[in-house]
Amino acid sequence: MNKYIAPPFRIKMIESIKMTTLEERKLKLKEAGYNPFSLRSEDVYIDLLTDSGTGAMSQNQWAALMVGDEAYAGSKSFFKLEEVVKKITGYQFVIPAHQGRGAEQVVLPLLMKEKGMYYISNTHFDTTRAHVEIAGGRAVDIVIDECFDTEQNHPFKGNFDLERLEKFIKEKGPSQIAGIIMTITNNSAGGQPVSMENMREVKKIADKYKIKTLIDGARYAENAYFIKQREKGYENKTISEIVKEVLSYADIFLMSAKKDGLVNIGGLIAIKDDFDFYQKCRTYIVPWEGFPTYGGLAGRDMEALAVGLEEALEETYLQHRIDQVRFLGEKLLEAGVPIQYPIGGHAVFVDCKKICPHIPYFEFPAQAVCNELYLEAGVRAVEIGSFLLGRNPDTGENLESPLEFMRLTIPRRTYTNEHLAYVAEAVINVYKRRETIKGFDFEYEPPVLRHFTARLKPL
Ligand code: PM9
After folding, report:
1. How many domains in the chain?
2. Tell me, what's the pLDDT at 150?
């Protein structure tokens, strides 16, 4: 068997990318307030900011766009999407949203009976945390300790710490818990999977205390692939069978379809069987996202999503996807660059706490490495660390993230391994001059989700 599978597709159309000079990049980064989110994509050579909506669609998806039905209400494209989602999830009710955070904005406040209630997740993604906090709730992460030791090998570093989960519920009282959110894969912890056994146990605990479980399924197909690869008893199951079992452990499925939906825009809310809750979501989707049969999407978007959801469950697609991320990760490991190990599903997470121990968390070591990588080679990565984590909503203090990551996020079906070899070389060059890298301070700090729009100044 080859070490890495070749792409299970041929490239039919290309988009040119352009290299800039170091002098140009220095200027662009300064103009962007030392925040790669504010760079223009045309000034980026290889864009590893996110795998969200940045992938390539298949010829079948492009063809599906043409049959989109743009009716305001009751579009046939909605019913096609609904049928596919019901088939994949086994759930009864489906509402589209324009993207993941649109789904979060509708669902998360509706499960909170009063302000101050808690959501518990293995790790909340930043928009999920923001929606909990905007609704007056508190977001608590209860992930296993192994996840914080980037060198420790564990097949499911995204897992909940079950003991601490139950202890927290007992301490606060079950009536104070709005819901338990299983984020699969666990993005902020390094694209790390959650095991079937762990989700089964979470569901048992939730049932014992009558708490709703939600799946944040942005990368649920990648998670299913890891279960097939790593969990005993699942090696001969299909990805679809694994997904069905995973979804049986939740009441609500929220999805940013810009990831494992293989589309450039889209999101989903699916509800297992709670009709009353579905009615509430149908009511509130209207002012936030749009009529319940389009939820902020055009008919053509729903058509592309219906096709993409099925393509993302194909095993060879997933094998190539995960292999490609591993290709980049292994190149870095060979050169001694510290990364979250095992390598995750959608990205390689470079451990910048280890690379820049001389930069304190409040000067954002991983952001500093991201900026250096852009200067080195025109590669855009993203910080997942203290810059992203923000401040304690009660005290206003800068929170210290246990991990300071530079995430090299691989868009789906977009770059070749040659691109990734180039990225690896650039990261290794930055690593070699790591002692010279300096931290940053705020020039402008927005009150929510600060990492998206903040401006920084070098120290
Ligand atoms: N994730 C990501 O790059 C896009 C925003 S940051 C550039 O990882 C999870 C697990 C996500 C996620 C987005 C969302 C929100 C929810 N859950 O971006 O609103 O990783 O579609 O989804 C990004 P939307």
Report:
1. 2
2. 97
Does the residue 427 lie in any domain? yes
Question: How confident is the model at residue 432, as a pLDDT?
Answer: 98
Q: How many other C-beta atoms lie within 10 A of the C-beta of residue 275?
A: 10
Tell me which residues of the chain have a pLDDT lower than 70.
Answer: none
Is residue 38 one of the residues assigned to a domain? Answer: yes
The reply to whether 287 falls in a domain is: yes
Question: Catalytic: 72?
Answer: yes
Q: Which atom of ligand 1 is nearest to the CA of 53?
A: 21
CA of 179 to the centre of ligand 1 (A): 19
Strand partners, 272: none
Q: Say yes or no: 159 and 241 in one domain.
A: yes
pTM: 0.97
Mutate to test the pocket of ligand 1, among 35, 47, 49, 52 (most ligand atoms within 8 A of CB): 52
Q: Is the CB of 187 under 6 A from ligand 1?
A: yes
Question: How confident is the model at residue 1, as a pLDDT?
Answer: 83
What does each C-alpha distance from 270 to 19, 255, 267 come to in angstroms? 43, 9, 10
CATH number at residue 214: 3.40.640.10
Q: Where are the beta strands (DSSP E) in 30-127?
A: 46-47, 93-97, 118-121
For residue 209, the enclosing domain spans 59-311
74 within domain boundaries: yes
323 is catalytic: no
